[in-house]
Amino acid sequence: LELLSVGGILSIITFHSGEDRIVKNEFNNLKAKGLIKIIPKQKPSADEIKSNRRSRSAILRTFQKL
Q1: How does DSSP classify residue 47?
Q2: Phi then psi for 44, rounded to 5 degrees?
């Protein structure tokens, strides 16, 4: 977080629920301290999953440093 400039954006893609839980919890901890703004998570569209089956478990989590 120290390396990110104010207003900077960081995105992380997870593929397993265990990974996602760690990222989600850390984002929530940083938000509670007032350090970041969480941007809603994104999942692959139905078309993406249809053309790339391995993408179905991917979750993109993003935050912006305040």
Answers
A1: H
A2: -65, 150
